[in-house]
Amino acid sequence: MRRWAGGFGAAAVLAGTAVLASCSGSPAPAGPIAVSRSACGDGWTAPPAGPQTLQVRNDAAVTMEVELVDPATGTVFGELEGVGPGTTRALPVTFGNGAYALRCAPEDGTPFVGPAVQVTGGADRPGPAVVPVTNADLLGPLKQYHGYVADGLGTLTGETAALAQAVRAGNRGAAQQAWLTAHLTYERLGAAYNAFGDSDGAINGTTAGLPNGAADPGFTGFHRLENGLWHNEALPALSPVADQLDQAVQKLRTSFADAQIDQNDLGLRAHEIMENTLQFELTGRTDYGSGSNLATARANLAGTRAVLDVLRPLLTTRFPGLKALDAWIARTDRDLGAVAGKPLSALDRKGRQRINADVAELTERLAPVAAIAEPRRIS
């Protein structure tokens, strides 16, 4: 996996600021709303209904996260992350009728909610808005996903062993098929790559940044082996490469048993897997001879589905676009399935445009998952 910008419906996720509410023609309030360690919303009076841009000033000596919430339910309507000391930041929101308050979370303190204001004279409260996901909410999905990855690594160790055996036996055709089987298994484990640490570079690294390219001794793993298998490198010379890959996978399987997937990563990876697919697989930048980028893209889609499966209980009540997302995933899977056995070069212009459009649209539709599933401190 190679190394977010997106939207939450009308939300934007830009430079560390997630805005979970829509805005247009946003008039500025009379003055900034002050937040600090002891007060969350000084200087704020009930705003008029409709689009507004709140100016939030951090008077604390530490960085703050500031959210606009329903004080009764904790539903989040807007969010500012990483508001530095002495900094004023803009928070675009759309106010409907109802109660609102600011929730402040000092980086080294307990979150607290400021005084509520009541908005009247407008329409019913608009979306988008989301009930916060907490660290506790993610414990079950993380455990389930860890099991999925662990099972996948168990399968992968058998496949890389078979790959190494085929290389040692001097059977290039069998080695190529074994390579494809193992590589697609690895690519289906996409959301856990951050937990793989340096192992990912050893197992699935490319020539990017290597001074000697494919001849660089730092080029190892699946793509090094792919380069040799499909460019007629002598199989005895590839045997140590295949053995090294097998050993790296076995080492990863052992270390992952005690590893933890970061709670912040699970929802984010659902978006990033397809973003990286668009950037690397559908441009052919990771093709070292096998012509398997389209098959890899479909494996990445399976990895995305695995993430959504474990997050679905949280998303069902929080993400109105989930049904439409599922339909787009099915469309993308169908279109990729029709071409997964072909190299990119075999697609005509229309076919290439269709696949690119599928994955690009899916990437945008997945962006809300990252915002919704980000764990928030609420107490």
Q: What is the rounded Rg?
A: 24 Å
Task: Assign an overall shape.
Answer: elongated
Largest sheet descriptor: 5 strands, antiparallel
Question: N-to-C SSE series?
Answer: EEEEEEEEEEEHHHHHHHHHH
Strand content bin: 15-25%
Structural class: alpha+beta
Q: How many helices does DSSP assign?
A: 10
Helix content: 40-55%
What's the pLDDT, averaged over the residues? 88
Low-confidence stretches: 1-28
How many runs of DSSP E, i.e. beta strands? 11
Q: Give the N-to-C terminal Cα separation.
A: 35 Å
Describe the structure.
The chain has helices at 135-168, 172-187, 193-196, 199-204, 221-229, 235-256, 265-281, 293-315, 322-337, 349-373, and strands at residues 12-14, 17-19, 33-35, 40-42, 50-58, 64-69, 76-83, 88-95, 98-106, 112-113, 117-119. It is of the alpha+beta class. Strands 6, 7, 9, 10 and 11 form a five-stranded antiparallel β-sheet that branches. Strands 4-3-5-8 form a four-stranded mixed β-sheet, with no helix packed on it. The longest helix has 34 residues, at 135-168. The two termini are 35 Å apart. 42% of the residues are buried.
